[in-house]
Each structure stands twice: as C-alpha cells, then as structure tokens.
C-alpha cells in the first residue's frame, strides 16, 4: 500500500464523524385516540441528518470497528407529556413523547428509535386538530 493511501485512510477514519450533520430538528407529531374528540399536533425535536457511513467493500483491509452503518440518533433526550383534549372521563388523556436534547451518529437502538424509513405517510390527523407548543 502506498503511504498516501494509508494516510488518507487514517484521516478519513479519524475525521469522518466531523463531516456528519446530525442535530436536533423541529418535527410535528400528530396524536389521536379513538375515544377523544380531537387530534393533537405536538411540536417537538427529533434527531435528523447525515452520518458518515463506511462502505464494506474494503472489509478485508479494515478492522471490523472501522466498518459502520451509523444513523443519526439520540445522545440525550427527555420525555414530555401532553394532554389530549376532548377525552371522556374514563379515558387516559395523556400522551408522552421524546424530545431530542442532543444527537449523535451511532448504532440505531430499536428500544426508542424507528430505524427504518417508512415510505407511507401516517403522521396526520383524521379528527379536528389542536396545536400543542411545548
């Protein structure tokens, strides 16, 4: 291997995360319950953006730790709770949702993240809408 290739490889692996553009972004969640009269539109923040990914074509030349398929995910998050209006007394009218405080590029944790991009748009209201700015 040429010294230029080795230096490029080392610099690319070292500073690859610096080229990532992963940060909290504004997002609106639409929440409704069948028993309640309204749909609640909640403004929150999610983690979104580009993370540097390494192609596995060179897997025989690189260490396993150098091969990664990173996603933009939560570094720090907190949960907030909103009250869904128009719910009858026998229904629990609360909805808890995550708020991204900071983000990082890393492995996707399916415990709290949707790791697959869904092509069907399901984030909408079928009932009259109320806005919740938290």
Automatic annotation (TrEMBL):
UniProt GO cellular component terms: cytoplasm; extracellular space
Keyword set includes Membrane: no
GO MF term (any one): hormone activity
Compartments where located: Secreted
Single GO biological process annotation from the record: G protein-coupled receptor signaling pathway
Signal peptide range: 1-18
Coiled coil: none
Limits of the Glycoprotein hormone subunit beta domain: 21-125
SUPFAM superfamilies in alphabetical order: Cystine-knot cytokines (SSF57501)
Pfam families linked to this entry: Cys_knot
InterPro entries associated with the record: Cystine-knot_cytokine (IPR029034), Glyco_hormone_CN (IPR006208), Gonadotropin_bsu (IPR001545), Gonadotropin_bsu_CS (IPR018245)
Keywords annotated in UniProt: Disulfide bond, Glycoprotein, Hormone, Secreted, Signal
Recorded family membership: Belongs to the glycoprotein hormones subunit beta family.
Subunit and partners: Heterodimer of a common alpha chain and a unique beta chain which confers biological specificity to thyrotropin, lutropin, follitropin and gonadotropin.
Protein name from the UniProt record: Thyrotropin subunit beta
Organism field: Picathartes gymnocephalus (White-necked rockfowl)
Source species taxonomy: Eukaryota, Metazoa, Chordata, Craniata, Vertebrata
């Amino acid at each position: 291997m040429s010294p230029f290739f080795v230096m490029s490889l080392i610099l690319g692996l070292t500073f690859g995360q610096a080229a990532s553009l992963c940060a909290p972004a504004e997002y609106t969640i639409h929440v409704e319950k069948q028993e309640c009269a309204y749909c609640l539109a909640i403004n929150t923040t999610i983690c979104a953006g580009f993370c540097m990914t390494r192609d596995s074509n060179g897997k025989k030349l690189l260490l396993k730790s150098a091969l990664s398929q990173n996603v933009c995910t939560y570094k720090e998050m907190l949960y907030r709770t909103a009250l869904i209006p128009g719910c009858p007394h026998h229904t629990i009218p609360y909805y808890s949702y995550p708020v991204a405080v900071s983000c990082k590029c890393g492995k996707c944790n399916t415990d709290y993240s949707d790791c697959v991009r869904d092509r069907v748009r399901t984030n909408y209201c079928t009932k009259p809408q109320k806005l919740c700015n938290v």
